From TrEMBL:
One of its GO terms (biological process) is autophagy of mitochondrion. GO terms for cellular component: mitochondrial outer membrane; nucleus. Belongs to the FUN14 family. Transmembrane segments: none annotated. It is a multi-pass membrane protein. It is found in: Mitochondrion outer membrane; Nucleus. The lineage of its organism: Eukaryota, Metazoa, Chordata, Craniata, Vertebrata. Binds directly and specifically 1,2-Diacyl-sn-glycero-3-phospho-(1'-myo-inositol-3',4',5'-bisphosphate) (PIP3) leading to the recruitment of PIP3 to mitochondria and may play a role in the regulation of the platelet activation via AKT/GSK3B/cGMP signaling pathways. May act as transcription factor that regulates SREBP1 (isoform SREBP-1C) expression in order to modulate triglyceride (TG) homeostasis in hepatocytes. This is FUN14 domain-containing protein 2. It comes from Crypturellus soui.
Length: 78
């Protein structure tokens, strides 16, 4: 008749916590990196869509900023 701890196994939480990365402690074990969650094709699609959206937004903001700076310079000349 062994002790109950021998039959069930004993987990040392201090050792377990030392071996886990800090982001796993903060965000829970289910939140791994995207490389662990998604396959390569999905990562390429997500990266492409977010890159296109970022480029589109920066294009619109850049045109607006250039127009504002050029218009301000024009008004200073007048």
């Amino acid at each position: 008749a062994g002790r109950k701890e021998d039959a069930c196994g004993l987990l040392d939480l201090a050792e377990y916590a030392k071996n886990r990365p800090w982001w796993r402690k903060v965000f829970a074990p289910s939140s791994g990196s995207s490389a662990e969650k998604y396959n390569v094709a999905t990562q390429l699609v997500i990266g492409g869509v977010t890159g296109w959206c970022t480029g589109f937004i920066f294009q619109k903001v850049g045109k607006l900023a250039a127009t504002a700076v050029g218009g301000g310079f024009f008004l200073l000349q007048v």
